[in-house]
Write a structure and sequence with these properties.
There is one protein chain. This protein is mainly α and 302 residues long. It has 2 domains: 14-170, no CATH class; 174-302, Four Helix Bundle (Hemerythrin (Met), subunit A) (Up-down Bundle), CATH 1.20.120. Helices cover 79% and strands 0% of the residues. The longest helix has 31 residues, at 269-299. The termini are far apart.
Length: 302
């Protein structure tokens, strides 16, 4: 074995580099969705605080963190060109440690999920499978915006919501909860499309068929807005049909405000996508929480 290989094997990544690899900033969306699931599931939050804490760790640092490590490992050659300061191409995560961390974090996620009930365990397995399929060959779902965005949307919104509700009930969540989780997952597909605007030049060069790369910026932006708006409109109708009139009005107002912001976004989608992510997406997730409290109000009177 060469001295270079021996040195590479003997090196260990610094904890700060590992934390950077796991990207804490990406943990918030699934943790928020998990919180919505906890709220919608009913039950006492104070009595279940330990399990809820475990679920938050599972949704954010573990499953989401795993997805980030997997993604960076399988994108290391591209990142060496486009983002050489990332932990793996910069050498702060030496050798095959990026892959080892992804595998270790997957196993830890499975072990934690196994302590939180069968439905939580099942949701975690689905999420981890999608995380690997998104980045790793042979699937590499990220290479096509239709499939990749769908996987991300489910993992960031639907599965964590399902997980939080399942944790609170120890049962398969109510169909109303599952319906809302699926609808907000569908809407999140549009959010993922907006996130792709920042990398459109690199995607075109590397052959990544993100929706902005496939459709062009203007058409992709219009599609993203439609995909975000229609599921929320369906949520408004469902809440109204369930007798939750005030909650329905609240979500409708949140949606109307987003539509106003969308009209501005569509004038300069590439330039204003970060602005919309800070404004419109904040309203989107606020609507999720309103919907979660709406379902909770039904659960608590049953």
């Amino acid at each position: 074995m060469s001295n270079t290989n021996v040195t590479s094997l003997s090196l260990r990544p610094e904890p700060s580099a590992v934390l950077t690899l796991l990207k804490p900033i990406t943990w918030f969306p699934p943790m928020w969705a998990f919180g919505c699931g906890v709220v919608s599931g009913g039950g006492s939050i104070t009595q279940n605080w330990l399990a809820i804490f475990g679920g938050i760790l599972l949704a954010g640092p573990l499953v989401c963190g795993t997805s980030q490590a997997v993604n960076d490992w399988f994108d290391r050659h591209v990142d060496a060109i486009n983002e050489p300061n990332r932990p793996i191409p910069s050498g702060r995560i030496p050798g095959k440690w990026g892959l080892y961390i992804a595998i270790i974090w997957t196993l830890v996620s499975v072990l934690v999920a196994a302590t939180l009930g069968v439905w939580v365990f099942t949701a975690a397995l689905v999420g981890l499978t999608l995380a690997w399929a998104y980045s790793a060959p042979p699937f590499r779902l990220k290479m096509n915006g239709w499939w990749g965005n769908s996987a991300c949307a489910i993992c960031y919104e639907g599965l964590p919501w399902f997980t939080g509700a399942a944790l609170m009930t120890s049962l398969l969540p109510d169909t109303k909860i599952i319906s809302l989780a699926l609808l907000y997952s569908l809407g999140a597909h549009g959010i993922m499309t907006l996130n792709d605007f920042k990398a459109i030049e690199g995607d075109l060069k590397m052959g990544v068929r993100s929706l902005p790369a496939q459709l062009g910026v203007d058409r992709a932006a219009k599609l993203a807005c439609i995909v975000m708006a229609i599921p929320q409109l369906v949520v408004v109708g469902l809440l109204l049909s369930w007798g939750l009139t005030y909650f329905s009005i609240a979500v409708a107002l949140v949606l109307i405000t987003q539509v106003v912001l969308m009209s501005k976004l569509l004038k300069q989608p590439k330039e204003l996508a970060p602005w919309y992510n800070a404004t419109g997406i904040s309203l989107y997730v606020f609507g999720m929480l309103i919907s979660a409290f709406a379902i909770r109000s039904i659960v608590l009177v049953q």
